[in-house]
Amino acid sequence: MTPQQPYNWRMRRITKLGGYVIGIGAGAAAVIWLVKDRLLGPETTPAGHDDSPAFRVAPDRPSPATTSDADLSEVKGIGPVYRARLEQAGIASCSDLASATPAAIATAAEVPEEKAKDWVRQAGDLAAQ
């Protein structure tokens, strides 16, 4: 009588092949996970998604300019950051910007004087309308 083995040869072969398949699959998944940024590009947050906490209080907005005077954001090149810097310096409308000197604007907005001259010209055109 021969001693019985715990597995017959077919079951042993199937188990061994299954181990190889699982090992190769796990290795391939690990490699893909490591190079996923190169294959798919970096993850980005959706445009409308805001990570700020819900309890954050929005800062007070400055009082809007009168309807007869153009807003600073209508001047090409003045975005929210430059607009805030100019408003802190007391320049809140296009007429204020047109009457200020380019040197004062360049200092207040921390921009080159050439850019400030262009803003003054644009503000003068908008204030004249």
Characterization of the model:
The chain has 129 residues and is mainly alpha-helical. Among the domains are: 9-40; 72-128, 5' to 3' exonuclease, C-terminal subdomain (DNA polymerase, domain 1, Orthogonal Bundle). 54% of the residues lie in helices and 0% in strands. It has helices at 9-34, 36-40, 80-88, 94-99, 102-109, 113-128. Helix 5 (102-109) packs across helix 6 (113-128). The relative contact order is 0.09.
Q: Which keywords apply here?
A:
mainly alpha, 54% helix
Short description:
The chain has 129 residues and is mostly helical.
Distance between the termini: 110 Å
Helix-strand pattern: HHHHHH
Identify the CATH homologous superfamily of the domain at 72-128. Answer: 5' to 3' exonuclease, C-terminal subdomain
Per CATH, which architecture of the domain at 72-128? Orthogonal Bundle
Shape: rod-shaped
Report the structural category. Answer: mainly alpha
Radius of gyration: 33 Å
Detail the poorly predicted runs.
Answer: none
Total beta strands: 0
Largest sheet: none
How big a fraction of the residues is strand? under 5%
Topology, element by element:
Blueprint: H1 9-34, H2 36-40, H3 80-88, H4 94-99, H5 102-109, H6 113-128
Helix pairs in contact: 5-6
